[in-house]
Specification:
Layout lengths: L9 E10 L7 E10 L2 E7 H8 L5 E4 L4 E4 L1 E6 L15 H14 L3 H17 L2 E6 L5 H11 L2 E5 L11 H4 L3 H15 L7 E7 L7 H14 L3 E5 L3 H11 L5 H7 L7 E5 L5 H10 L2 E4 L1 H8 L4 H6 L3 E4 L4 H4 L4 H20 L9 H8 L1 H6 L17 E4 L12 H7 L6 E6 L2 E5 L2 E2 L4 H19 L11
Parallel strand pairs: 1-4, 1-5, 6-7, 7-8, 8-9, 9-10, 10-11, 11-12, 12-13
Antiparallel strand pairs: 1-2, 2-3, 5-14, 14-15, 15-16, 16-17
Helix pairs in contact: 3-4, 3-18, 6-7, 14-15, 15-17
This protein binds zinc ion (ZN).
Zinc ion binds next to loops.
Amino acid sequence: MEAEKKSSVMVLLHNAFIVTMDPQSRVFRNGGIVIENDEIKAIDQSSHILHHFSALEHQIIDLHGQILLPGFINTHVHTSQQLARGIADDVDLITWLHHRIWPYESNMTEEDSYISTLLCAIELIHSGVTCFAEAGGQHVSGMARAVELLGLRACLTQSTMDFGEGLPTSWTKLTTHDCIQSQKELYKKHHDTADGRIRIWLGIRQIMNSTDRLLLETRETAEELKTGIHMHVAEIPYENEVVMDSRKVDHGTVSYLEKIKLLRGNLLAAHTVWVNKTEIGFLSRAGVKVSHCPAAAMRMLGFAPVKEMIEAGICVSLGTDGAPSNNRMSIVDEMYLASLINKGREACVKGTTDPTVLPAETILKMVTVNGAKSVLWDNEIGSLEVGKKADMIVVNPFSWSMVPLHDCISSLVYCMRTENIVSVMCNGRWIMKDQKILNVDEEKIILMAKHASSALLKRAGIMIPNRMNVL
Ligand SMILES: [Zn+2]
């Protein structure tokens, strides 16, 4: 029997300012792109694309000079924390963790995680994100359902801890074996699902909540499954002090991870704020990827040595972190912040400012090609090139926030707002068109989120005290 020939869907976009982020850093002032099913088939000057492809049965879209970019990649986001936005603002770290976040997360149901991920991902899509790395949250199956429905791409990770003081009782029952086993099951169930858009990673929440056995078995399991590990690393000085004291190393978490050979190319280390020069060397030599989350760092952690890490050749990307650490899940805001914070940090480190630190091109790399390398997906995403997956965004720069456009590349970092992003395509399909999320009813999700978060806070016994003179 003759195999049925699958008819292909062709989309042709032309008259666009295309920032490819390819190895030659090509930018087309008036470019065109052809997408066949989920892949980029051609990219060139508009005239060339129209001449060679417009005769075929295509959906042809004139972008009228708008900007086309690869979809952004957010390499550290807690999707299951979205319903906790506003529950831990302006509180100390112990209150934040023990009295707000742990009770919240330990009382979540899978349905809560599903709704939380939907709400979070809607915000991610509006800010141009087509792929994200989950930082380690509750109920991965709920997350997977939301990601599949919305049409996004993601590396999902379960929050994993097998040790620590003050943990909720439901979590203290988990043995190291349970932690590894449940992640293996999630891998079996969800890895490479949703047309290949979902991948399952292993998680280590942080070193202070991990036994050595968990660290080592995670390393081995990731090796066996050929997947990545997502871990919070060197977030606060206290973490390093605990590690130096209990695990007998010179400096902190990174030194210990080096000692036990957990520093590898498949490790995505979030934050890595408190690292010294030697540890930057360890990270660089091992090919560890770092997710810099500027807003969360400023709010709770401190200045990460991003300039030094980039100079050492470390692949640094950007993340938003979770809603209780940042409130805004816009990677566009993080791009702006990353550049400003790291320019300003020079004044603290050297006593003089340096406006040349982290220029716009570097920031754009962080949210595209570096993001793709960080999630171990750079053979398929991160740039607009023939043969790569069709993950891209359309930016309308002709509004008050971006006009005039004397320097288009810098405008994307210093002027662009989330509201400038009009359309988002992932895996060859539009998931947002003219700022409308296509696969779910946004208003309905907002309503569901309001109900679910109120019920969850009530169940968890979390009370948010009034501020100012509420009458
Ligand atoms: Zn985090």
